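Journal club side-thread
Mid-discussion, someone asked how the predicted structure for our own chain would compare to the paper's figures. Pasting it here so we can look after the session.
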Amino acid sequence: MSTRTETILATASRPTRVIAAVTRIALGFVYLWAFFDKLFGLGIATPREGAVLAGTSASAGYLSHTEGALSGFFRSLAGNPVVDALFMLGLGAVGLALVTGVCLRLAAVGGTLVMGGIYLSSLPLDNNPIVDDHLVYILVGWLLAAIGAGSSAGLGTWWQSRPVVRDHRWLF
């Protein structure tokens, strides 16, 4: 089975495939690190007493201190258990998908929701009127999905060969 996303990396040079794989795994690590730091309170961005496993909200610390155009909306979401669960699920699932190279299209959608929310909650931006790292993460996630980066040093080729995935291309 050949698709346009498979063809892009299939015809790419070895260095290009390696760069795609390393970029995919690095972006996945961004999500997974945030997930594990929030879950366990690893002491970098989240202190141990601020961990989800310590009973702290995953969203309250950040969302309750937002400022800017949409701060009222985002502050109203702070500490909501559904928001907390979706945020943690998004971080973990997107990170795992990127690191393993499976479900990159869904990971791009999930990454857009997670990072897009953080991006919108930051408006207006401090250092640039339009672009910040969250927007770049979204764009890189979509690029990796578009080129089929899961097939390079990942489980993407195996994943795409599964019958259910072949029948439901949105699972690529």
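Post-session note: Confidence is low (pLDDT under 50) at residues 1-5.
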